[in-house]
Each structure stands twice: as C-alpha cells, then as structure tokens.
Amino acid sequence: MSLPKTNRPLLRDLLLGLFAVGLLAAPLWVTVVGIDDPTYTYDRAEVVTNSTGIEYANPDSPPQPIRTRLRGGLSEDIKCTGLDRDRRVCALERGLLETGSAPTGIYTGAGGTRDGRADYPYVQLENTVYQTSAVVNTSAELRDGLYRIDVTLEPVDADEALSRVSRDPDNVPSVVAETARDGTTRSNAEVDVPETPVELEDGTHYRVYQLGGPNPPSAVESRLTDFLVYGGPFVGMYVLIRLPRRFELSYVREGERD
After folding, report:
1. Which structural domain range is residue 19 located in?
2. Domain check: are 201 and 233 in the same one?
C-alpha cells in the first residue's frame, strides 16, 4: 500500500494547528525563553607589563567610574594597583620596603622562606611588583628553638606575577571567557566576574568587568512579550475554532493505479 496522499489545504491546516497550539502555550515558553528579561553587559580592558610594573594598556579603559567601583585594582592578588587603594595596606608595605623587614610576633621552628603571604601574594609600589614573603629570622630566637617570622618584600618579574594571578579561560564563566576574547558581550544572566585578569591562549591578559546594572528590555521586546502572554492564547483559540473540522484523506491501493 502506498503512502497517503496529502493535499495542500491539509498541510496548511496542520501548520495552522501547530501555530495555534504554539500561541496557546505562549505564556509558558515566553517565560522560558525570557524575551523581556533584563540583560547584562560585560566589557574588557587589556592589562600589560612595562619594564617592572603592571598597568592597563589604555589609561581610559576601564572608564573612571568602573575603576572606582572596582576599587581600581588590576587584581585582587596585587595590592596598591588602582585609584581607590587600600591606604593602610599600601602605607604598611611602603614602610616595609624602606626598612627591609618587619616582625610579625609569630614564631616557628622551621627555617627558610615562606613565599606569598596568605592575604595577598603581591604588591606594586613605585611601578615595581614585589612578592610578599615571610622569612624565619634565625637571629631572633624565642626559646626551645622557636624563631620569629618576619615579613619582607622581594622584587619579582612583572610578567611572571601577572601570569600567576591570571585565570585560565576554562576556569571562568563562559560569558567572562567570551568577553575576554571578543570584547563587549551581552548576557541574560549575571555572573561572578573574577577580580583578576584572564590570560588568553595568545598570552594577552584582559580584566573583564560588568558595565553597571542590568539593562531593561526594549519597548519592542516588552510589547511582544505582552502580546504573546495576554493575546497569544486568544488568537490561538480563534485559529483552532476556525480550522475545518473534517479532513479528507485519499489513497490508492496497489493494483488500482492506472
């Protein structure tokens, strides 16, 4: 037996039926698609190194308001790199740079150097990057072989420091990775942007940031959503009522063909 023959009116009615069902279910799928959901815009600023320090490639990127909101930092792991600096931390580190070391009041029996203090591993002073270190001062013995730990600063290569504090694109939200690679990106979801640069495959570094708060939907998107949610079911019901209630199928048996 051959397949049933379909005519154009039947196909038209089937498509209209599917269209009507889609309109009836519009309040459900519009919510899932999120046509009128607010969007979030993300942008990037390139981070580079000079002879001894780290800085933004463009002095105007990120814009001044964004820098203030980000506290001006290039990275949460490198202190004293922005406009709104932690004055207390920078003052302490600057004093440490002048004196060479400072006691902590903590004692240990182990010798050697402990690179990178727990709070932040690097600090940038006078356009030079330093690694924060904790050194066991063997000349300051307390008792029973316990020695005082002193904090110090050691100059390090800026490229090495920048690479160490940067994130891999595979370890950040996809929106952040896309923005780091391609520039301005819009998303329906608000994501946590790492407070440190992203290092791309070509060795470049970008600090990704969010441009202000959520962007409201456009007037067209809002009107379309209102129509689909409130008017869609009525239009769908009207189309279904107007569809023919009888369909004719004709087929030809084998052996009955001319």
Report:
1. 8-37+217-242
2. no
Q: What is the DSSP string of the chain?
A: -PPPB--HHHHHHHHHHHHHHHHHTHHHHHHHHTTT--BEEEEEEEEEE-SS-EEESSTTSS-HHHHHHTTT-SBTTEES-SSS--HHHHHHHHHHHHHSEEEEEEEES--SEEES-SS-SEEEETTEEEEEEEEEEEEEE-STT-EEEEEEEEE--HHHHHHHHPBPGGGS-HHHHHHHHHS-EEESS-----SS-EE-TTS-EEEEEE-SSPBPPPHHHHHHHHIIIIIHHHHHHHHHHHS-S----B---TT---
Span 144-195, pLDDT tens digits: 778 888 888 999 999 999 999 999 999 999 999 999 999 999 888 889 999 9
Q: What is the pTM of this model?
A: 0.67
Q: pLDDT tens-digit profile of 22-34? A: 766 666 655 556 5
For residues 51 and 24, membership in a common domain is answered with: no
Same domain (yes/no): 79, 183: yes
pLDDT band at 9 (very low <50, low <70, confident <90, very high): low
